[in-house]
Structure formats: structure tokens, C-alpha cells
Amino acid sequence: MVECLKGKKILTKGNYAIANAAVLAGCECYFGYPITPQSEIGEFMSGKMQELKRGYVSAESEVAAINMVIGACSTGAKAMTSSSSCAVALMQEGLSYAASDQLPVVLVSVMRGGPGLGNIFPSQGDYFQATKGGGNGDYKLIVLAPSTVQECVDLTYKAFYLAHKYKNPTVLLADGLLGQMMEPVEFYEYPYPEIDNSDWALTGAKGRPARKIRSYSPLADNQCVFLEKLYDKYKQIEENETEWEEINTDDADIILTSFGSTSRNVKTAMKICREKGIKAGFFRPITLFPFPHKRYAELSQTAKKFVVVEVNMGQMVNDVRLAVNGNCHVELFNKPVGAPPSVEDIVKKIEGLV
């Protein structure tokens, strides 16, 4: 039983860590369609969810999967799906609906190379897809980006909590490297309070007034009022849930910044630069939405330069430049797809800038 994992440290793959954590978080329904490099999540769930008498469906498509999750979440259930890149693209309409309907959908997105079908190599090319959204209209998804297999567990727990706390679709954004690597992981009791959904969930009227969950609004004025309230919620999320990691930024001339698994090499490179006498710091957004704009702006008052390291053609770098707002120079050091830039290459880049 999955309960036996609590309090134990085991060696496991990122995808299995996510799946186990989802079960421990109380996931009641999983709907998905296989695609590399996240197929192990659905494979694990196909056995474990049935063993625990919970809901599992291998959907006929990604479009079907996201709509099944919407249906389950409308009853207040903890429901999730998982997919990757080009397949997550097919879910964009559903995610827009879920944001408008204010439903606690949890999506695990394990990125692969693109655009189009691309390839199965690791990539961070779906930063825009997750943080800007490919669906229609004004909406935002909560986006959490783990950098270790342990964080795959920690942030899976948090994804379910935030999704239900704010009634908002939440994305765990990993990549193929993190999904496939193996590390020691400690599982523990779900640490968050359960959220009461009794005032909105569709459970059958049973003597009370009927409820409706729908995104269609025929009157422009009504839609304006709705969107203002929706964005008030997003402001609340920004105030309460923005999370990051920073090291040696107080006196840093150059701050290395990245997200996800790429941050592992970046953090090591920062330490080596420090040993070489270079005043380097490290900053990693853990929440990509809400993005830590304010902290970047504060650091730009003292740092001389930011270096953004990404495995894509440059995506998060745009948000860093907006946050810094011209206070200091922002440099991109990137690799389009595959393993992240090596520690040695990052150190050479910093030495060249110095």
C-alpha cells in the first residue's frame, strides 16, 4: 500500500515520485493519455488507483482527459491529469474553461523538445505555454517548478493544496530530465489542511437551490465584473504564494537565475565562481506564476548583471527583463534542447562577463 511509504526514504524516479505524492495527497481521480517522457505517471496510476478503489480512466485523447478532469473537479473531487508539451497544447481550451469555471484542476506537465512533435529530449520550452497560457481570454494558471525529485513530491502536495485553496488550475512544470532521473526521496504525510468545497461543488441539489458552473456570460458588463473579481484573486495569490530560493545575493555583482532542473548546475557554478573570487549569487523562482517580480526588482538595485540560464531559446528571460525594468543588464545563456549547460560552461560564461 502507498501508506507504507510515509516516513521512508527510497530511491525513485521523478515521475514515480509525482505519482506517489499525488496518491498520498488524496487524489481521487486520474485521467490521462500516454506520451513520453511522463508515461510512467499514468502507468503507475493505472494500477495504484484501482487498487485503492479510486477513479482511473485511460482516456482516448488529451482533449478527453482534460475534460474528464473538469467534470470530476466540478464535484469537488481531487482530480488530475499528466501530459507533455505537444499534448498539453491540446488541453489549452480545457484549461481556459477550468480557469473561468474556477475549478481545482491539477496538471503535471513534463516538458520535452519542441516545437511541434519535436523529440523526447528534455527541454524547458513550455515556460510560455504554462505561464502565459495557450487558451483564450484573460486567465492565469498557478505554476510550480521543481528542481529535484524531492521537490517533485513537495510541490505535488502543494499543487493540490493551492488548486483547491484558490479554486484555480495548477500546473506542476517539470521536464524530461527530472521526470526520468532517480534520487533518494522522503515521502511524508500530506501537510496541508483539507479545503471545504461544500459551498460550490456540484453534488446534486437535494433540497437546496441548484448550482451552476459555466464559463459562458452573454452580457459584456457581467463579464467585466467577473474578470475584475478573477484578477483580484490572482493578486491575492501573488501576495500570499510567491516562492523562490536565493543564495549569496546580498553582495552579488552577478546573479545567476534559472528554474527547474537546470538550476542544479547553475547553483554549483555559482559556488565555483565564489571560490574563484567572483561575487556571484543565485536566484531560482519556485513559483513561475506568481512570478517573483518584486524580489527581482529589489535585487536589480544592487546587482550589476543578471544571467538567465535556460534550456530553450529564451523565455523566462523576458519576465526577468520586465521585472528588472532596465535597472541592470540581463544576459541570456541558453541551450535549445537536451541536457542543461554544464557547470564548466556556465563558469566560463561568467568569467567572460567579468
What's the helix and strand layout?
Layout: E1 9-13, H1 14-24, E2 29-32, H2 39-51, E3 55-58, H3 62-73, E4 79-83, H4 86-89, H5 92-101, E5 106-113, E6 119-122, H6 127-131, E7 142-144, H7 149-166, E8 170-175, H8 176-180, E9 182-186, H9 220-241, E10 244-247, E11 254-257, H10 262-275, E12 280-285, E13 287-289, H11 293-299, E14 305-310, H12 316-324, E15 329-334, H13 343-353
Parallel strand pairs: 2-3, 2-4, 4-5, 5-8, 7-8, 11-12, 11-14, 14-15
Antiparallel strand pairs: 1-9, 5-6, 7-13, 10-12
Helix pairs in contact: 1-2, 1-7, 3-5, 10-13, 11-12
Q: Could you state the order of secondary-structure elements as H and E?
A: EHEHEHEHHEEHEHEHEHEEHEEHEHEH
Unreliable stretches? none
The major beta sheet can be summarized as: 8 strands, mixed
Give the overall silhouette: globular
Count of extended strands: 15
- Kindly report how far apart the N and C termini lie: 54 Å
List keywords for this structure.
354 residues; alpha/beta; eight-stranded mixed sheet; 15 strands
